[in-house]
Amino acid sequence: MAEDDGDTASTGAVNLRRRLSCGGCGYLKDETVGSVVVGAPVDPFFRRPLWLRARCRGHVLWAYDAQHLDLLEAYVAAKLRERGGVAPGAPASLVERLPTWLKSAKNRAEISRTIRRLRLTLPAGRGGG
After folding, report:
1. Edge-to-edge strands, sheet with 2-3
2. Strand locations in 39-84, DSSP E?
3. Model-level pTM?
């Protein structure tokens, strides 16, 4: 996903019990969340910055996890971007909401490099190197 100065972020009301945990330091937080943030480089429930984010073409390219990186990579690499044909199982609205700079063919190489760089930061066994 990508962010254009937070303009595309939205919130929605929910009432969910969520757990935030870190395998590295052992941090643990349980919380009932009243709203979620979608479309920004933060965790939708706890609003903490995402690990998978990097500057790219003057914007922030971000993903929630390895599967999200896979979807972005498939979309960017696709020569013909037909609705529903890029990433089976992905909601069509997700691809439709991608910012214009990420959809632009002229940015393809730089976006692909950034995705590869982000993938290298993933722990082994989670899509990383």
Report:
1. 2-3, 59-63, 52-56
2. 52-56, 59-63
3. 0.74
Chain segment 60-89, per-residue pLDDT in tens: 999 999 999 999 999 999 887 766 555 555
Location of structure tokens 């979608």: 38
52 forms bridges with which residues in the sheet?
63
Closest CA to 69 of 11, 10, 4, 120: 120
Residue that is written with structure tokens 């992905």 in the block = 90
* Residue 11 CB contacts under 8 Å (≥ 6 apart), including other chains: 35, 36, 37, 38
**39-55 per-position pLDDT tens digit:** 888 888 888 899 999 99
Distance between CA 81 and CA 76 in Å, rounded? Answer: 9
Give the separation between CA 84 and CA 55, rounded to whole angstroms.
Answer: 28
The amino acid sitting at 62 is W
| CA 122 – CA 19 distance, rounded (Å) | 20
Distance CA 36, CA 16 (A): 10
State which amino acid sits at residue 3.
E
